[in-house]
Amino acid sequence: MTGDPALSPARLRQARFAIAGVFCAHGAVTGSFATRIPWIQDHAQLSAGTLGLALAFPALGAAIAMPLAGRINHRLGARTALRVLLSLWTLSLVLPSLAPNLVTLCFVLFVYGATAGMADVAMNALGVETENRLKRSIMSSLHGMWSVGALIGSAAGTVAAHAGADARLHHLIAAIALTAAGLLAVRGVLDLRTDAEGEAPPHFALPPKSALFIGAIGFCAVFAEGASMDWSAVYLRDVLHTDAGLAAASTTAFALTMALARLAGDKVVDRFGAVRTVRAGGALATAGGLLVITVRHPAGALAGFGLIGLGIAVVVPLAFAAAARSGPAPAQAIAGVATITYTSGLIAPSAIGAVADATSLVVSFGLVTLLSFALIAGATVLRQRPPAAGSAAANRDEPAAIRP
Q1: Half-sphere exposure of 113 (CA within 13 A, CB side)
Q2: Model confidence over 43-65: pLDDT tens digits?
Q3: pLDDT for the residue 198
Q4: Which tens digit of pLDDT belongs to each residue from 124-149?
Q5: What value, to the nearest 5°, has the Cα angle with vertex 359 and ends 355 and 365?
Q6: Angle at CA 297, nearest 5°, toward 296 and 299?
Q7: In 3-state terms, what secondary structure has residue 402?
Q8: For tag attachment on the chain, is the N or C end more exposed, with fewer CB atoms within 10 Å?
Q9: Please, are residues 224 and 314 in contact by the beta-carbon 8 Å criterion?
Q10: Dmax over Cα atoms in the chain, in whole Å?
């Protein structure tokens, strides 16, 4: 399709930057929300336990709603579906700070998570299709841009919190700004449309079989991510008896290495392939886990958490890419993998806590180390295959499927 101006190199570069902007806007919503959780807790008059209950609802809403994204994508086309779902997600940022009590907060966080999950599926599906047309890896850097957006949103939220700004006003302004930014970015993405004569996906579809093994790899990585993000600081404080500042640095080390690895990961994937990259990442994450559980010094734990972040960073982007190539319905397969990984993110923090209560945090991170090792053994399911027949990626000689 080199003769098609809609798919010229310049147009594809524009599409890549546009979808990167979408990922950044999506991440900025998460960062904006996370920094104001203490304000929301005080406003709704919640204890730590009830807040923990409420914070399970975003993942629950996402897991339930994500299978709907394939139908929406089929009905509206990729660009319009992304425009609608991303706008719903950015605008949903205003809801949590308005909740006056636990019941209301649980409901709005369910909606917040549902819109997040559907937008997540739509943007990942479009990211994979853009990657297919560029014929080189971009998914890792797209997820890196999500991390950049989360850092931007959290930085702005930190400033607002430090200034004592009302979270309702802060989130209203942020939602308007991010909605505008998202709509601007969506204008540049590819407008992919499925065959009008093809069978529409069901309104609600369980993950296809092709997504289960791929999702299991994503499950391992997201479990390690959720455990490290939520428990690394607690580990340094309670196991290694560090001060609060040094304990918090473990979370920063983990998040920073993940972001940097994702931004640089595409070149590694293009050079070595998905399977070898994930195997090497699994080895790094396993080494990091072993450092955490065996070295009784803060420096060792900090290095360990950094290695875990470095090792698992590219797994989820590669899992989404593999899912999209595993069958004729990329959005449905991505939704299946995303549902499994979101479930992992939902259960990881509580599972780590349960194991720690029964044994110790050291044993909990022994479990994280085992799951990291599983990435080495299971990496073969991410082996890159030709796009499935009938998918947009396979039909590279059919420019009518793309609207400029």
Answers
A1: 24
A2: 999 887 788 788 888 888 988 88
A3: 52
A4: 889 988 988 998 889 989 998 998 89
A5: 55
A6: 140
A7: strand
A8: C
A9: no
A10: 64
